[in-house]
Structures are given as C-alpha cells and as structure tokens.
Design a protein that fits this description.
Blueprint (H helix, E strand, L loop, with lengths): L12 E4 L19 E2 L2 E2 H9 L5 E8 L4 H15 L6 E6 L4 H12 L6 E4 L9 H14 L1 E7 L6 E2 L5 E3 L7 E10 H11 L9 H7 L5 E4 L10 H13 L4
Parallel strand pairs: 1-4, 1-6, 4-5, 7-11
Antiparallel strand pairs: 2-3, 6-10, 7-10, 8-9
Helix pairs in contact: 1-2, 5-6
Bound molecules: cytidine-5'-triphosphate and the ligand C[C@](O)(CO)[C@H](O)COP(=O)(O)O.
The site of ligand LQXTBERG has 8 residues, from β10.
Catalytic activity: 2-C-methyl-D-erythritol 4-phosphate + CTP + H(+) = 4-CDP-2-C-methyl-D-erythritol + diphosphate
Pfam families: IspD (PF01128)
Function: Catalyzes the formation of 4-diphosphocytidyl-2-C-methyl-D-erythritol from CTP and 2-C-methyl-D-erythritol 4-phosphate (MEP).
Length: 247
Amino acid sequence: MAKMNPEKSNKDAGVIIPSAGTGVRMGGGTPKQFLEINGMPLLAHTIRRILKISCLRKVVIPSSPDLSERTRDIAHEGLESSGLSGSVDIAVVAGGDERMDSVRNGLHALKDDDITMILVHDAVRPCFPLDAVEQAIDEARTSGAAIIAVPARDTVKMVDGNNVITSTPDRERVWLAQTPQVFRKELFVRAYDKLGDKAYLATDDASVVEQAGYPVRVVHGTHDNIKVTYRPDLQFAGIWLKANGEA
Ligand SMILES: Nc1ccn([C@@H]2O[C@H](COP(=O)(O)OP(=O)(O)OP(=O)(O)O)[C@@H](O)[C@H]2O)c(=O)n1
Ligand SMILES: C[C@](O)(CO)[C@H](O)COP(=O)(O)O
C-alpha cells in the first residue's frame, strides 16, 4: 500500500477557487482577479490567505483556458511563499460559462481525491475572516454544510417589475451569503449529481445543496468580506489587506 506523505496526513480539505469570470461590472478589459492590489494580483492575495487554513490539502482553480498558465504561476508563487509546497497540491482546470459550471468542473477534479471536506471561495474575495472559516469548517463537519454570511444591515424591500415595493421581509431573518462555503464532500457531490442536466442557475454553492434538500447553516462573517465587483472595491481591499498584515 502507498505510504501517505506525513505532511498531508492530517489534512482533509480541498478548496475550489472559481476564477473564470470576465469582470463585466468592473470593466476595463483585464479580468479583475488579475488586477494589482498593493503590487500583487488580486488572485494572489486570495490564494495566500486561503493557504492559511490548516486542513487544506488541495487547491483547484477553474480558470479561462487562455489565462490558465498565468493562474498556475500565481498559485505556485503563493504556495512557495507560504512554505507549503510539500503539503498542498494545486490544479488549474477549465472554467465554465457560469460560476456554477466552473465550480462543477472544480468538483470533478476533486472527486477522486482522498478528502472529506470541500470549500468553495470566490477568487475575488481576499478579505475573509479566517476564524469564521474555521468555525464553518467545524460546523460543516458535523452538520454537512455551512456558509459564511452576514445579517442584513439595512431594511430590505421586495420590489416588482414597476419598482413598487411588494413587501418588507423581517430583517432579522435576512442574511447575505458570502464565501467560503463549506460542505462535506459526499454531500456536495450528491447535490450536484441530483441536479443532473436540470436547467437551474445557482448564484452560490449553498443553493445547489438547498435544492437537493439538505440543510445549510450560516456562520457569522464580517461585512469587510466584500466580493470585489466595482472599481472602488479595489481600494477598500488594498487598505484592508495592509491593515491586516497581508502586504
Ligand atoms: N463563469 C464564471 C463566472 C464567475 N466565476 C468566478 O466567480 C467569482 C464571483 O463572480 P463575479 O464576482 O460575478 O465575477 P465575474 O463573473 O468576473 O464578474 P461580472 O459578473 O461582473 O462579470 C469570481 O471569482 C469569478 O471569477 C467563474 O469562475 N466562472
Ligand atoms: C457566491 C457569491 O459570492 C455569494 O455572495 C455570489 O452569489 C456570487 O455572485 P455573482 O453573481 O457571481 O457576483
């Protein structure tokens, strides 16, 4: 029987970092994950912080094929600077048309790996809270699925096609989904299998699991954990990363 590398033996998680978007809302031609913040691509910041999660064994990055080499270079630089070359594997795979297609491809690359937990984290969320992620991993180990989210700060309105308010949901029960989102591998695979070819567009990973009928818990995140979407978000992320010792 093949001997397990001792540096990997206590690591049982894989992370999918979907990075195949084109950044339409950011504009400007360069996909936002390659824009520089404090002298480093946004994707590099996200990877370096993700590598601080102690149970990670494998990082899978869905990327558009023309940018896969650049993506691989950024990922390997991150791995080397974190001193984890011997204990974490990296794979870059093809992304898909929608975020959920990219995640599906990432999941395919992890299917046969000897891991029990899967995290999914946007390439463009570099300011996530590590302690909350560890809590979400613990929660998902026990209950199957947990995501980082924050309660709504503002009053929420449901609005019809004519911009008329139709209802005001109870704010106490409205949470905004972020990433990382964490799942037991066998449950996440089953949820995607259950979807099959159904035409269903999930804008996050928990939705796929909810559709399959499994409960997903929320763990309190932070409002700082923004998804870099518009130009000013780059500035916020730059300040946050400096203030938190991340270059
Ligand atoms: N087909 C897609 C679309 C998105 N993503 C990734 O999913 C994350 C969140 O998506 P979003 O912020 O919407 O990124 P973009 O799709 O690039 O942005 P936009 O919607 O403005 O075009 C990003 O890391 C993005 O690269 C992906 O891997 N594959
Ligand atoms: C997964 C996500 O980041 C959770 O908030 C979000 O749903 C992604 O949405 P987008 O349409 O790809 O920006």
